[in-house]
Amino acid sequence: MFVLANLLDAVAVVLNIVIWFAIFVLVIDAILSFIMPYYFPIRRMFDAMAEPMIRPLRRIIPPYGMFDFSPFVAILILVFIQIFLVNTLFDLSVVLKR
Q1: Neighbouring residues of 98: CB distance < 8 A, sequence distance ≥ 6
Q2: For the range 9-15, what are the long-range contacts, defined as Cβ-Cβ under 8 Å and sequence gap of 24 or more?
Q3: Do the Cβ atoms of 53 and 46 come closer than 8 Å?
Q4: Residue with the larger pLDDT of the pair 78 and 63
Q5: For residue 39, what pLDDT is reported?
Q6: What is the mean pLDDT of residues 78-83?
Q7: Total domains, the chain
């Protein structure tokens, strides 16, 4: 059982890192959208990374005037996944190690 517990622990750690990276990308992309025009390469790079996470939400939540709330909703969804799924995997790995 300890092998399965270590596998779940490793999956939880990697998923946690991926979620934090995605949150970081969304925050930086939102900040850059206010201060930098689109033709800058760094802005296009962050837009390319953030767009797959935001595009499905933009179909549901259209921009309200000048403000786009889809990055905020994406961050909320990522935090929910992090709290629910990652913590569940950590707890399950602890239980299996006993």
Answers
A1: none
A2: 9/89, 9/90, 9/93, 11/89, 12/86, 12/89, 12/90, 12/93, 15/82, 15/85, 15/86, 15/89
A3: no
A4: 78
A5: 87
A6: 95
A7: 1
Q: State both tokens at 86.
A: 């990652």
**What local confidence, expressed as pLDDT, does residue 26 receive?**
96
- Which residue type is seen at 26? L
Range of the domain at 39: 2-97
Type of residue found at 45: M
Q: Which tens digit of pLDDT belongs to each residue from 24-75?
A: 999 999 999 889 888 899 999 999 999 999 999 999 998 888 888 999 999 9
Q: Which two tokens stand for residue 46?
A: 């962050």
Phi, psi (deg, nearest 5) at residue 9: -65, -45
